[in-house]
Amino acid sequence: MSGENTPLEAPISARTGSGAAWLISSRFATRGVDLATLAILARLLDPTAFGLVAIAMTLLLIVEAVFELPILQALVRIEVLEKGHFDTAFTLGIIRGVVLALTMALCSWPFALIYGDRRLAPLICVLALAPVMRGIVSPRMAIFARQINFRRDFVIEIAGKTAALIAASTIAFTTHSYWAIVAGTVATPSVTAAASFGFAPYRPRLSLGHWPAFRSFLGWSSAAQVLSAISWQCDRLLLGHFTSAASLGRYALASDVAAIPDTALVVPIGRPLMAAFALIRNDNVRLRQAYLKASSTIVLLGLPLCLGLSLLADPVVRLLLGGKWLAAIPLLRWLALASVPMLAVAPFAGLAMAEGRTDTLFRQKVIEAVIKIPAIALAAMLLGIDGVIAVRIGTSVVLTVVTMVLVRRITGVTVSRQLHGIARPFASGGAMTVALALVAPGLAVIRSPALLGVALAGAVVLGALVYGVSGIILWRLAGRPDCLEAQIIARLRRFLRHSLRGRKVTRFQT
Description:
By secondary structure, the protein is mainly alpha-helical. 81% of the residues lie in helices and 0% in strands.
């Protein structure tokens, strides 16, 4: 199996950038399909349907996290892969799926009784198919992850999301039932699992012969995943008791839309970053530089998305979801800001796993759970959805500071140095905020959908121009450091030179 472990000749930074580009392109494309699916479902289903499925999904995601096995990450970090590693990984996925399905079946009826809705029991049982299918992806996909090559992921994810769009839309049009959401949720992992075997052929064989190679890696990482899921889902779990299904549906949908920048940008970047960190983990200087560059890049790309979504929440909701979701506008406006602080420490999970410091990752999740869960419970009981959103924003700020301290312990990079690396994007974000805040009130009074769409596109272009121009000015004032801005400007110059050269050649030939 030596060919699967041969290092590539391209520089790590180039491979990381290429891998991240493919994954980000994939996620933005799939988020586009998701938005199309969401727009259809929002117009055909009531908020109550989204609230009902949100409650069922809460249990599903928590139980899935309890049995989460970061098998792909383990395969990426193992020095030399053998056939037995793939067999063990596949077997662990099968065991996880069976145990998860049985657990969900046993929990479905008691959970339905707790929430007083019998429809939850069959919902939970069917939804359990989604994580089962996610666990049986071809383990040989890890070969491409080790090479920081994610072209195949692009095709696989597009295929899965397209299948979800077709399944959900068909059932929504024919039944107007919440089962449309369930169909889309299950269709995606089913298709992606099948497609993975087409791109990474593997003949399944059950074996745990290489279990020791996975054991130490899975312990702390799995525990961290459990705490993360509980902290992530505790708001919906508790709001299901203290608010109506319709209110929970609006909150859940606004939360899902607000998470688009994170799922489209931060999550896909994490995979190539983890692989890149693993390749240079023995070089402390390069590791520190790589982490700071990754952090500033994620903030530079993610911040305008979050701020824009918050400032333009009104036209986004009216165009995407329709008039019956207007109550979700203030929710989206504030929820979009809740993820902004954590952009600064988004590469932390990949860094901790690459360094074998999964205990530190677990420590971060413990701190988050200790702070967030009691605060969310109190806020949900006394203040409802508004209180929960306030807690989410406050927790995000506190956890960002805590994570920066943990990064310092791993890499030696001080908190002030980490903050200095993201200062320019936040300054540019401030300029963009002022520009969009001036035009947003004008968009709120437009009633024609066509005119609103044109105005929204214009506002997006304005925000991008202000953010980009101010970013370039600040980059030049900072002495033109080697960062993403430098790479973007260099590519633009090459593109312009190539274009001008092409025009001169054309004129000469004419």
